[in-house]
Amino acid sequence: WKSQLELAIAWNRVDLAKTEIFTEESQWESSELHWAMRSALVGNKPQFVRLLLETGVSVRDFLQDEQTLIYENLARTINYSINANTVLYFFLYQSENKAQRDPCRDLFLWAVIQNNKELAEIAWEQCTDCMCAALVASKILKKMAEEGSDADEAKDMQALASHYEKHAIGVFSECHSSDQERAQKLLVRASPFWGRTTCLRLALEADDKSFVAQSGVQVLLTQIWCGELSVDNPVWRVMFCMVFFPLIYTGFLPTNRRLKPLGCWSRLVSLYSSPQVKFYWNIVFYFAFLLLFAVVLTTDFQATPSAGELLLYICLFSLVCEEVRQVRDGTRMYIKDLWNILDVLSILLFVIGFAFRLTSELFYAGKILLCIDFVVFCLRLMAIFTISRTLGPKIIIVKKMVRGLYTNVPYLIIFGNFPTDIDKIQFDINSCSTNGTDPLKPKCPVLNEDQTPAFPEWLTIIMLCVYFLDADVVFFTFQVVQDNTDIIWKFQRYELIKEYHSRPAAPPPFIILSHLYLVLCRRPIVCKEFKNELDQTEEEELLTWEALMKDRYLLSTQQEQSQSMEGRILDTAQK
């Protein structure tokens, strides 16, 4: 029988193996077929792999065989194929014993990295934590497609990544329709098989917008957004209680009905620790910060810093402290966000402008830099619109507009023809009021020694050209965003909720006190709603239930394929 099985594998005759070798009378030990499994894997015979698994070959025993080198080759293959990332790091670089806890996972990764669709599909069906496995595959394939040099292969990888995102969506939809509470636990449970990360974190890293846009995920995000407050509370009630907090003791702002009744102090904490309340307070502060910034630049910018300017520096320092905290929480995810890059740019411009204003020679240049920085801070204000279902997706246009601007700036440099005497235009000092005391004349700008405006007017032309280029890029990205408005908004909403859930409760500049408390007590902000550690019994029960839902999903998928026209034609051809 061994020689017959060798020939069947070599000729890829699964039908002969089923009828002539693996009959009902035959009884096989798992270890007796390890060589056949190895031959099927090396020879890329996925149908034989499926047949051997159905016959009773144990993947765990097979991959723990001393002759199997998949563990040694897996980390090396991934290391050369893609850059190390948080999804793979935690289990690829741990001890070998820990890596062998889930052999099906390792076989699945091996197939995914080889871009072997059929074998990966078979291995995924054997995975214990199937939803996380599908999201990890989506992440890996997208990363490999970005770094690949072959356009056709990259296209296949992107298609396979979308295929596994659909698998994750299908399993979750089946779970959510069966039991919403269990399905939500699956989203935020720390998976021991995937570096103790969660499905939501994997979906964020893999940029799986369709998965995040699922109604079950959005229900969970809405609950996290409201915290311990009821999800049915209108915005005006929440904002009213932010100012007049004693109203929370009158039942004016109901709390979550699923939770047990809260005490007086707990009610107050639940109000101000809610992500939506943190968001509203930060909006109020940011508008106040911009107003103070504008007042200082226009009316109160003197050689000696005034009280308003000192308050401005304190507010900026509180912003710097918050950015440092976010960087410490995750540098790689921090730099991937365009808004964080904009924050860093605005802070750097402010620091340079502040350094210039300390010297008399560069005092006016420092003011110009701070004015440009004010524009950057105003651009950062657009991030608050991501919570809006209507305006949120339009922010994607701005992000793409900024990226597209980089490709147009060289044309501005090459073909831009600025007048050489733009700063030497005849300027009449009598046409304006030096001190601004004449109501019939405008106030004179800051003048040089030769009585001409000190402000570089060429800078105005450059900024105007930048605005025109921005408007031009908008037309190329508007339609793409418009077609996927709902999915984009839901994904942006998740990022916003995640950010404000991890923020300290106090808004800037009082957030400095929260940072000081966190440093002294060495207590990081724990996001239990986004990452939940389960005990072993509950973990096993949840994974068993997930496996059952996966089988239901696969069965329904097979039924849909068989009922489709293509499935009928394929069945007829096989007969």
From TrEMBL:
One of its GO terms (molecular function) is ligand-gated calcium channel activity. The chain crosses the membrane at residues 235-253, 279-298, 338-356, 362-385. It holds the Pfam family TRPM2. Its main location: membrane. GO terms for cellular component: plasma membrane. InterPro entries: TRPM, TRPM-like. This is TRPM-like domain-containing protein. It comes from Monopterus albus.
